[in-house]
Amino acid sequence: MKKTTVLLGIVSSLFFSNWIIAQETPTNEDLLKRIEALEAEKNKPKEWDASLYGWVRTEYNFDSRQSAYSREFHLNLYPLDEKLDANGEDINAAGGSNFLAITSRVGIRFKGPDVWGAKATGNIEADFFGNTELNKTSAGSGSTGLMRLRHATATLTWPKTALTFGQTWYPSFITDVFPGVANFNTGIVFNPFGWAGQIKVAQKLTPELTLTLVAYKDREFQTANAVGASVNSATFNSSIPTFHGQLQYKTKTVTTGLGAEYQSLKPVIESGGLVSDQTVNSDMYFGYFKYANDKIITKLYGITGGNLHHLVMLGGFAGYTEPNGQESYKPTKTSAFWIDVASANPKVAPGVFFGYTKNSGVDAGYKNLYIRGVSGARVLDAVWRASARVDFKQNKFNVSPELEYTAAKWGDISPEATAQNNMKDVGNFRAMVRVMYSF
């Protein structure tokens, strides 16, 4: 009896175990459904995503002459005028060199859920260039080497419209068409440079043609300071932003466009002990062209206008004394162009650059000049630069030697703030090597 009971128990256990296993074992159809669900989950767009990017960048540069510069000789603008000592020797003929890695950069690109039917993306980027120079009257190095905000934007993108707000490039800096030089100056004084707080709307009129409208306020780079003004107060005091409009045509090989700006700044709110409503009003026009294929990249850019100081170019504005003792303002005019031609070879890519800029002055009768390119009673007439480089590229590693010559013509200031008499040509030869490792 006991044996029979035990035998029945074993048989029952085996029966129920096999039944349970049979119930849990998935069929081919079940397996297929599970695979499809896993694939769907894998291919499902992430609601939130972020990616890190940037580079380590080190540059060694040698200069044959003293220049107007930024951040410990890192960013050279133009060679300084002749400065003679008691023996008739030119003090500014002295050279210099430096090793710096302050343009190393880090950024984050991110995206999130759709907003009002638009794709939502963002970008935050910084480098270590700092915002202020060395104070020569005290110890320390200003903010050189400290983190500096470059970009901080959020963008909503619909099928034909994109809305961007935050801090990013000046709209006259064309991200598809800027000099490919190795030097961090990026063609500065010939090409606009810098970032501004802004709101930008880009509307596709056709698949190739885009209209862009921007309203912005200067921030890191700004106009010169008038008597009684503080840093960037001309922008703060203005009740309206700078307005920018641009048309761009873009295909696989060609990018071309033209644009214009209107700016109204209020340098001070008090002048001559009275409330001041004086503004400096200016307009600017520019155009650009790029042709690129798998062998060559050719870029051209031209710009002309008043008070281009905030674009890190020559010029600014002049101050005039009114009958009531207050100061009024007029913009000086500057024009510039550049061309850059480079190989599109992915391993070894030589390139050349040439740029030219001209100071066309302002109306006579000014009392004060608030411009870039003036030194005492001397002013720049024109500046040109020619450079040649070779980019050696391997994966994300890049080594770029470059030779550059920048020439400037100085002269005595005329009643129109142009150069006249006692003209002097000076030049700076810069040799540099840039090493970058990107991620």
Structure characteristics:
single chain; 439 residues; mainly beta; Porin; 2 domains; 16-stranded antiparallel β-barrel; three-stranded antiparallel beta sheet; 25 strands
What's the structural blueprint in terms of helices and strands?
Elements: H1 2-24, H2 28-43, E1 49-63, E2 67-70, E3 75-79, E4 96-100, E5 105-115, E6 118-127, E7 148-157, E8 161-169, E9 195-204, E10 209-218, H3 233-237, E11 242-250, E12 254-265, E13 270-271, E14 274-275, E15 280-292, E16 296-306, E17 315-321, E18 327-331, E19 333-343, E20 348-361, E21 368-372, E22 374-375, E23 378-394, E24 397-413, E25 419-438
Fill in the CATH topology of the largest domain: Porin
Largest sheet: 16 strands, antiparallel, barrel
State the shape: globular
- By DSSP, the count of extended strands is 25
**Structural domain count:** 2
Question: Strand pairing plus helix content: what structural class?
Answer: mainly beta
CATH class bucket of the largest domain: Mainly Beta
Biggest sheet strand line-up = 1-5-6-7-8-9-10-11-12-15-16-19-20-23-24-25
Strand content: over 45%
* Element pattern in H and E: HHEEEEEEEEEEHEEEEEEEEEEEEEEE
Considering DSSP H and I runs of 4 or more, what fraction of the residues is helical?
10-25%
Overall residue-averaged pLDDT value: 90
CATH superfamily of the largest domain: Porin
Low-confidence stretches: 6-11, 136-140
Please state the second-level CATH architecture of the largest domain.
Beta Barrel
Distance between the termini: 79 Å
Number of helices: 3
Radius of gyration: 30 Å
